[in-house]
TrEMBL record:
4-aspartylphosphate modifications at: 54
Domain named GGDEF: residues: 322-449
Protein name (Swiss-Prot/TrEMBL): EAL domain-containing protein
Residue span(s) of domain EAL: 458-712
Keywords: Phosphoprotein
């Protein structure tokens, strides 16, 4: 029967199938051009093998409604319904297969003549088999009912249990048995290639989740192995093995301890049932796999972040909250281990950590892997505490026949003191973890409200800084640098400032670290460099041809792979003379990676740009490394200048820095000079260069130009 509102579809179908014969019998056709017309025909004509049914006719779901009418109202369970649609959006394949009792689903575009032949032939043979079985055995209704019930079951184990139950019901027996399937273990072990028992009757219940090698009866293993090797079911005198074929190749196999003496019709009954089970099994396997990917970590088998959030929300909404703690466990220096020993070793290492945590906490706590090398643990406060967790890392881990000693850093939050939901709890525990990693690796921190306030303020400041940069609310000021002896203007240091819309200034020591942390400093730093170079060129045009411009460069900016390219392009684009541009780097930055720094500084010097070490004396310099650096100047930190008092014994550190600079042949400049006494003392030490409020505060471009004009000389 062809049910479609398009006459061309009827013509094309009869033309394609007109010559087809099944078992030497030609096809005959019934035609309906609407769902209502089909209903009228079906009420009088019940001997129909196949219905080729369109979805969209007089209504968008007319075809789907007709399926329900055929199956439920007319009770026509034998007829094979092949759903054909030119508009899959009105009846998505998965929804249609799941929600409606159809036997096949095809889009009209994919139904070539050959595929239509195949689908119809297969459907007719299936129909004839059903009719033959019906004629000799009324138990076919049980097969259909059993299959329908199985389709409603979710999860491989539930599905397998249902198959065992339905087999016993269909055959009218009470046989003990089990179902096994491939589990595809994540980590290879001695049973990696074994079938695992996924469902069992009472007699075999102790073998659940075990490999079949754990079965005591060797005859069971032998007959299952034989069935798998031959790819077919085995009906033995003492045992029966039913083999279910499915594309996923999970080797889904049912073992019954009874030998079934079945006639050919009984076997055909079972084959039909097994065929239906195989279709359902494909869906169950796919659903199980998607469920596992959605909620479980592929490597360790533990819950993932999404599953943990569900668990946390359940705990927070229950009385368990009153005595529960959430902890994040971060493996120290895992990235280095991964890089040094390879990702496969790293995976085995993580699996080993997961196993130890699971073995210790698994029964009473919930465990998850929420990051590359970060695990989450939630449970009773007495169990989930730093002492218990860190104790597990005192012994080395056995990984690939190697002993590996690890340490971990922990962040924790007590849920009884918490008002937020699961995602907020996880976020705040991560804040505590980051604080612990900052303070001391191998230690721990509990989350406090003050941590949350501080982090949120930093995040708000970061977003505000980004907006300020994009809307040009950042600006550059210039603090003059002076020759103490002559009062001559040597140049200026370019300094970044931020003024909010309401006129409030944000101190640089607040927003510069945020810019570095967020990576925004790279773009801001390039803009400051270009602004300073443009100003240098402008001042040279005013006649200040010996004016030198100093620009600060942060660690993040300096270590960026494109920094040298950015510097060179800024010089080229602005036409700033490199010999009058000075880059200031911090002392701690200079000592962080001396070898890389030496190479980079050499390339910078080749451009003609000079280098100054800023805030000298505040870090922990290695003089041997300092001596190797191709630098031009040391800058005495303002803290040491402030120590210079009338008492001659004070200011000794500043004096030592001046002497060090002289010994290394470097220029020395002092920052933060605020009075004549400091200037005179520095001059007596041999420091001739200075900047500070005693000479001029940081000035905007306009103020700098006015200040320069009012000086006695250029």
């Amino acid at each position: 029967m062809i049910i479609d509102d398009d006459p061309d579809v009827h013509s094309a179908t009869t033309f394609a199938l007109g010559s087809l014969e099944i078992q030497h019998r030609p096809l005959s056709f019934l035609h309906a051009y609407s769902a209502s017309e089909a209903r009228a025909i079906l009420e009088t004509e019940s001997d129909i093998a196949i219905i080729l049914l369109d979805v969209v006719m007089e209504q968008e779901d007319a075809g789907l409604q007709l399926v329900n009418y055929i199956r439920k109202s007319l009770k026509l369970s034998d007829v094979r319904i092949i759903l054909r649609t030119g508009q899959p959006g009105y009846a998505p394949e998965i929804d249609a297969i799941r929600d409606y009792d159809i036997n096949d689903y095809k889009t009209k575009s994919e139904l070539t003549r050959t595929k239509l032949y195949t689908a119809v032939t297969s459907a007719i043979r299936s129909y004839e088999q059903i009719c033959d079985i019906n004629a000799s055995r009324h138990g076919l209704e049980n097969v259909i009912n059993a299959s329908t019930e199985l389709m409603a079951l979710h999860g491989l184990s539930h599905f397998a249990e249902g198959v065992l139950t339905q087999i016993n019901h269909l055959l009218g027996i009470s046989a003990e048995g089990f179902i096994c399937a491939r589990q595809n273990p994540l980590v290879k072990d001695e049973h990696a290639n074994d079938l695992h028992i996924v469902a069992a009757t009472k007699a075999f219940s102790d073998l659940l989740e075990q490999p079949i090698s754990a079965i005591r009866q060797t005859k069971a293993i032998d007959v299952i192995t034989k069935s798998l090797a031959e790819g077919q079911s085995i009906y033995g005198n003492d045992a029966t093995v039913l083999r279910f074929n499915n594309p996923a190749r999970k080797d889904f196999t049912l073992y019954l301890e009874n030998g079934l003496r079945l006639n050919e019709m009984d076997k055909r009954l079972l084959e039909v049932f097994c065929s239906n089970v195989s279709v359902g099994l494909d869906n169950v396997v796919l659903t199980s796999r998607l469920h596992n990917y959605a909620f479980y970590d592929v490597l360790t088998g533990l819950s993932n972040r999404l599953k943990l959030l569900q668990t946390l929300n359940e705990i927070i909404a229950s009385p368990l909250k009153n005595h529960s703690t959430l902890s994040l466990i971060d493996i120290d220096h895992f990235a280095e281990t991964n890089d040094a020993l390879g990702h496969h070793f790293g995976d085995l290492l993580l699996y080993s950590v997961a196993q130890r945590l699971s073995n210790h906490f698994g029964c009473e706590c919930k465990l998850a892997r929420v990051g590359s090398d970060t695990f989450a643990l939630v449970g009773d406060q007495k169990l989930v505490c730093p002492e218990n967790i860190l104790a597990l890392f005192t012994k080395p881990f056995d990984v690939d026949n190697q002993e590996v000693q690890l340490s971990a850093t922990i962040g924790l939050i007590k849920l009884d003191e918490y008002d937020g939901d699961g995602s907020e709890a996880l976020k705040d525990t991560n804040i505590a973890l980051k604080r612990a990693k900052t303070h001391q690796r191998g230690g721990y921190e509990y989350f406090t409200r003050s941590m949350g306030v501080e982090i949120r303020e930093r995040v708000l400041l970061m977003h505000a800084l980004r907006a300020a940069f994009e809307h040009q609310r950042l600006f550059v000021v210039y603090q003059p640098q002076i020759d103490i002896r002559s009062g001559k203007i040597l140049g200026a240091e370019a300094l970044l400032r931020w003024r909010t819309d309401d006129g409030k200034f944000i101190p640089p020591d607040q927003f510069i670290p945020i810019a570095e942390y967020s990576g925004l400093i790279v773009d801001i730093g390039e803009w400051v460099l270009r602004s300073a170079c443009h100003e240098l060129v402008y001042l040279r045009g005013l006649g200040y041809t010996e004016f030198q411009m100093a620009v600060n460069v942060s660690q993040v900016q300096f270590s960026h792979p494109l920094f040298l390219q950015t510097l060179n392009k800024a010089l080229e684009d602005t036409k700033a003379p490199p010999q009058f541009v000075e880059l200031e780097i911090t002392e701690s930055m200079a000592m962080k990676d001396p070898e890389l720094l030496i190479k980079t500084l050499r390339q910078i010097k080749q451009l003609g740009v000079s280098i100054s070490i800023d805030d000298f004396g505040t870090g922990f310099s290695s003089l041997s490394h300092l001596q190797k650096l191709d630098i031009d100047k040391l800058k005495i930190d303002r803290a040491f200048v402030n120590d210079i008092q009338e008492n001659a014994s004070e200011g000794s550190i500043a004096k030592m820095i001046v002497q060090l600079g002289q010994n290394l042949g470097l220029a020395v400049i002092a920052e933060g000079v605020e009075n004549q006494m400091q200037a005179d003392t520095l001059l007596s030490y041999g420091c001739n260069l200075a900047q500070g409020y005693f000479y001029a505060k940081p000035l905007t471009r306009g103020d700098l130009h006015a200040w320069l004009e009012n000086r006695p000389s250029h």
